[in-house]
Inverse folding.
């Protein structure tokens, strides 16, 4: 359920970009981000860096479209979103608070969060999402400057990058647990 809430704004944005204007798409995505923030607040959880930053990103792009550059094309909007997500993701690591850490701390037992490699694992997972955002931005940039390429090529790259990051996010913690074992406090008592 958590991954659905995390990805819902981006899925809605992508779907709406095919159905309606870019301005409506980014404002709806911003509203969905704010709704996920509200859900976290109501549930007593922390406000997530990714959700709040994405809400601001989508709103800023929407305001730019509405007030300054309504002719910005679909690819320009998608590229802006991808670059924004890349900056948010990379920025979270640069300020030493990888965005995945907030989600992970709420999903794992305290003993797991106290493990020495826990923070490192979150940097690696956030790095995977950063790389995915960079690949999506690069695909849109290529499509922007090589207009003869079919639109599906960019969509295929975005689909592959996002799904690879999702798979990696699920696989990597399991891999680390198998490689390094459970924390000492989780081992059964030998008496």
């Amino acid at each position: 359920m958590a991954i659905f809430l995390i990805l819902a704004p981006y899925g809605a944005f992508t779907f709406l970009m095919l159905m309606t204007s870019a301005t409506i798409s980014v404002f709806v995505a911003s509203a969905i981000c704010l709704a996920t923030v509200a859900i976290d607040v109501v549930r007593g959880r922390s406000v997530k860096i990714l959700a709040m930053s994405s809400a601001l990103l989508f709103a800023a792009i929407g305001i730019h479209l509405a007030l300054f550059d309504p002719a910005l094309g679909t690819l320009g909007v998608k590229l802006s979103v991808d670059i924004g997500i890349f900056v948010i993701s990379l920025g979270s690591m640069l300020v030493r608070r990888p965005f995945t850490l907030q989600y992970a701390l709420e999903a794992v037992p305290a003993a797991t969060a106290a493990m020495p490699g826990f923070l490192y694992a979150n940097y690696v997972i956030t790095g995977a999402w950063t790389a995915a955002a960079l690949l999506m931005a690069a695909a849109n940039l290529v499509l922007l400057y090589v207009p003869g390429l079919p639109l599906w090529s960019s969509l295929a790259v975005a689909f592959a990058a996002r799904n690879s990051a999702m798979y990696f996010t699920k696989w990597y913690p399991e891999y680390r647990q198998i490689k390094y074992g459970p924390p000492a406090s989780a081992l059964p008592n030998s008496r």
Remarks:
- The first helix runs from residue 2 to 19.
